[in-house]
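User:
Hi there, any thoughts?
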Amino acid sequence: MANQHRVDRVALEIQREVAAILRHDVGDPRVDAVNVTDVQVTGDLGQATIYYSLLSDLASDAKKAQAGLDRATGLVRRELAHRLTMFKVPEIKFAKDESIAYGDKIDALLRQLQKDE
């Protein structure tokens, strides 16, 4: 099992490279507005979950972006294999980062509370 420092370094490098791959190598317009926010890698470096956010709050845009990312998964993984110096590139999956929407909701509740006082 890899140590936590190595896992963190690999996650950061994957985040950096996936952002560049999505920006330059994926020609799908559904992923143009995708921003990579975080990457979580398992301790054995076998799987990586790539969290992303969108500028749009529309559910239809989120579905389109997820479909585009699912379709580009093979290309992204192949490009990662070329760019990273790892024996085996982790399996990747994309997940929408809900923390930004959650933070916005908390901010709205706090503003409402201050307004009520």
